[in-house]
Amino acid sequence: MTIDTRALGFGSGDRAVFACDPWTSRGRLFPSDNSLTRSEFQRDRDRIVHTTAFRRLKHKTQVFISPDGDHYRTRLTHTIEVAQIARALARALKLDEDLAEGVALVHDFGHTPFGHTGEDALHEVMLPYGGFDHNAQSLRVVTKLERRYADFDGLNLTWESLEGLVKHNGPLLGPSAHGSGGHGGEKPVPQPILDYCALHDLELASFASLEAQVAAISDDIAYNTHDIDDGLRSGLLTFEMLEEVPFLAGLMRDVRDRYPGLEASRFVHEIMRRQITRMVEDVIGVTQANLSVLKPESAADIRAAGRVTATFSPEMADTDKAIKKLLFSRIYRHPEIMRIRAGASQIVADLFGAYMSDPSLMRSHYWVHHIAGLEDAARARHVADYLAGMTDTYAIRVHGELFDQTPDLR
């Protein structure tokens, strides 16, 4: 895919007509005065960075549990990598960089300890009470659970940031619904999202802004790359296994041809940087082509386009699927990872049962003195909030305090 370098926004300070404009934002649920020094989207990004939820990401699993080593990605380092790629894409496409970065920084706030394993376990025990969804939980964190400001719960982010958080993977209602949709037999929209939209309509049937879309595809680029890096570090992946994906085989061939005999650590980095570059350039080229056909005159035209605007080419989409298949078979379903997953699931299930039976055990929960009198569904949602906010290290420590035996996650 060729790129029109004349259309790139590097250093120009220009904002495309289809970008979100912070000066004409749809505003916040709770009106507030404008800042004299920052745009509304800058304020959102800054609020996100200064949260407890953001700090907790440093002790939450991406793929490998933290005792495995200090150099593996955590939710925090993953989030920073996503934000860097999102900002680069936003700059190239003349979007609002602060909004794209903010959506990237907040997108994993709702993740539980122990990565997707913890989410699956919490969803399982929450099924009688409406289930658990990390995207909906992210919304709860920024609209309710962060308790920092005198005038409101949550962060009181702009409509555009909240829309990007909820819909960065696509609409949740209607014929284009992605994942949680309620159409075509798919699972319904999580109730926390519906509850918030009753107060502040995020227009769940439309696509999100282009800033949110580049944040979403940056997530794919980041974890495809760093899960390979971490997999090689762990020994679960080998260079021979990477040969299964022609795209990766080609990158390794390029590096070997240019740097014969390069030491392994530098060899890995040279592969990873090329992978990110090729994927980013592919997204820029495809998005430019899509924009030339769509000819949007506003951010509203992006939302009404009926399809994703920022995406991979068909060839790169096939590569993306092949990389995910490799990671799934070689890492995510590796027997050693499955053993650790089983232990992490037990910790989450045990803690949920303990807190449902005795909510007073949640000593630091802000509603701890009122939960015991709630109906089961309301109590379960508070327990899920508390559990989802835990770091890996805290969950393991508390389980050790409450139970005679805690699974070994090393």
TrEMBL record:
InterPro entries, alphabetized: dGTPase, dGTPase-like, dNTPase_2, HD/PDEase_dom, HD_domain, PHydrolase_assoc_dom
UniProt KW keywords: Hydrolase
Pfam families: HD, HD_assoc
Protein name (database record): Deoxyguanosinetriphosphate triphosphohydrolase-like protein
Keyword Chloroplast found: no
PANTHER family cross-referenced by the UniProt entry: DEOXYGUANOSINETRIPHOSPHATE TRIPHOSPHOHYDROLASE-LIKE PROTEIN, DEOXYNUCLEOSIDE TRIPHOSPHATE TRIPHOSPHOHYDROLASE
NCBIfam families: dGTP_triPase, PRK01286.1-1, PRK01286.1-3
HAMAP family: dGTPase_type2
Family per record: Belongs to the dGTPase family. Type 2 subfamily.
Alphabetical list of SUPFAM superfamilies matching this protein: HD-domain/PDEase-like (SSF109604)
Keyword Hydrolase: yes
Organism: Neorhizobium alkalisoli
One of the GO BP terms on file: dGTP catabolic process
